Amino acid sequence: MEQLQQKVLQGEHLMYEEMLKAAQWLFDDQTPKDQMACFLTALSVKGETAHEVAALATIMRSFAREVAIQASGYMDNCGTGGDGLHTFNISTASAFVLAGAGVKIAKHGNRKISSSSGSSDVLEALGIHTAISIPQTIELLEKEGIAFLYAPNVHPKLKRIGEVRRSIGKPTIFNLVGPLTNPVPLSTQFTGINRPNFVMEYASVLQMLGRERAIVVSGPQGLDEASLAGQNTLVLVDKGDLIPFSLTAEDVGLPFAPLEAIRGGNADENAVLMRKLLAGEQSAYLDTVLFNTGIGLFGYGQAETIKEGVDMAKESIFSGRALQKLEAVVTFSEQIKKVEVSL
């Protein structure tokens, strides 16, 4: 392992098989945390490759708890985070709109590590219990077609790595790997990354990991979502093809808005924003969610175009179905809490 560490410190890329070995080392409880931090920092400075990301994702997923869901056709819209732009929880809000439009959502997520409010933080502020068991997660998926998988619940070996990541305080390869390690078998994926120059490589990682259809997006200034603030860089993975394209909000009938218009706050503040937009209150927050949901619906194959997906997203919100999905998950969570208290 020392040889691989030196290779990375010298700015050399690791082969897929070498990264498999390094990943096993990272997940070994005997590996010193300071060495882990040094290695992850060196990888970030060097710049991660598609093969390194795919190898780490493969090892991390091998350690995940099994989610033995019977049905297929699930989608994850988790992004990498780590963009440092302090926007509100766009993908979490979009998940409810996607579910309201009929998409089966199994969204992977975590607490804040390099952001103001992670998906699990805002979900708890909304009244959703994130630390639910695997059987409860499966029940929720089967009942409502949407559930949130809190990363530490499904990745028990992440605790030490999470401590190391927090000590580093900056995005690492684990930001890139997070969306790739959902233990639910996915048919489709829509993920945002904070590196516009890595979109094609990330799409190739999804292809390596067996996704038949997926979309990767990086917004202006490296936002890990599609943004109203200019040109977005995307790649569609479709049956083995990698199709790059670019898109602005105006292309699908939505207005331009600067990034400042979608700044978020802490978990409680973001929860308020989310409830307002799901209730149909017009704002740049709403338009941003419509944009991302439209892309997700196109990626899922439910819409033939992203413009059609945006129209479907509007219907999901203004019909009340998106908010109903939120309330259904909150109710399910409250029932679980009542049972736990009575035990």
Automatic annotation (TrEMBL):
Residues 74-323 form the Glycosyl transferase family domain. Mg(2+) 1 binds at S91, E225. Keywords: Amino-acid biosynthesis, Aromatic amino acid biosynthesis, Glycosyltransferase, Magnesium, Metal-binding, Transferase, Tryptophan biosynthesis. The keyword Cell membrane does not apply. Mg(2+) 2 binds at D224, E225. It catalyses: N-(5-phospho-beta-D-ribosyl)anthranilate + diphosphate = 5-phospho-alpha-D-ribose 1-diphosphate + anthranilate. 5-phospho-alpha-D-ribose 1-diphosphate binds at residues 79, 82-83, 87, 89-92, 107-115, 119. Its cofactor is Mg(2+). Pfam families: Glycos_trans_3N, Glycos_transf_3. Residues 5-64 form the Glycosyl transferase family 3 N-terminal domain. Anthranilate 2 binds at R165. Its EC number is 2.4.2.18. InterPro entries: Anthranilate_Pribosyl_Tfrase (IPR005940), Glycosyl_Trfase_fam3 (IPR000312), Glycosyl_Trfase_fam3_N_dom (IPR017459), Glycosyl_Trfase_fam3_N_dom_sf (IPR036320), Nuc_phospho_transferase (IPR035902). The keyword Amino-acid biosynthesis applies. It is an enzyme of class 2 (transferase). GO terms for molecular function: anthranilate phosphoribosyltransferase activity. Homodimer. Catalyzes the transfer of the phosphoribosyl group of 5-phosphorylribose-1-pyrophosphate (PRPP) to anthranilate to yield N-(5'-phosphoribosyl)-anthranilate (PRA). Belongs to the anthranilate phosphoribosyltransferase family. This is Anthranilate phosphoribosyltransferase. It comes from Lysinibacillus irui.
